[in-house]
Specification:
The structure is a single chain. The chain has about 60 residues and is mainly β. The chain has a domain at about 20-50. Helices cover about 10% and strands about 40% of the residues. It has one helix and seven strands. The strands form three sheets. Strands 5-6-7 form a three-stranded antiparallel β-sheet, with no helix packed on it. A two-stranded antiparallel sheet has the order 1-2. The chain has a two-stranded antiparallel ribbon with strand order 3-4. The longest helix has 7 residues, at about 55-60. The protein is globular and about 40 Å long.
């Protein structure tokens, strides 16, 4: 992943696409995995909530 993929331009503002690590602070982004968000620097991990079968069927075709 390149640094330019972590940011997006909206008009004249720069918007961050990913969340920061709550332990390390600004500048250290959390990596997005299929089932979790994790920090490669300190090892902080947040698990994503699993969707039930009903919620998955609503969103897809």
């Amino acid at each position: 992943m390149q640094k330019r993929e972590l940011y997006k331009l909206e008009g004249e503002k720069v918007v961050r696409e990913r969340r920061y690590c709550p332990r390390c602070g600004p500048g250290v982004f959390l990596a997005e995995h299929e089932d979790r968000l994790s920090c490669g620097r300190c090892g902080y991990t947040e698990f994503k909530k699993k969707q039930t079968g009903k919620e998955e069927k609503k969103g897809g075709r």
